[in-house]
Write a structure and sequence with these properties.
Largest sheet: none
Oligomer: single chain
Structural class: mainly alpha
Number of helices: 4
Shape: flat
Strand content: under 5%
Amino acid sequence: MKTLRFFMLGLFFQCSVAFAADNDARFAMKGAGFLPCQTFSKAREDRSNLYYMIGGWVEGYISAHNRYARDTYDILSFESLELLMSVI
């Protein structure tokens, strides 16, 4: 019975909506979010491995947003990753 309670508690936290910022609207930066624009621009120009890694990070970010945003299925329903990376 105790195991079932922990399992249900885990499901509750997994299914709940995440609010990333704290009360002062601060949030943690991760991954490509730390890169300076010059680094991104150079990586894009060279089509380096870093550029494709940033693309993977962006897709993960978009997927997480789709998962946790209320009333959202897909915030980028028709845009390709390459178009999005061009805009960035």
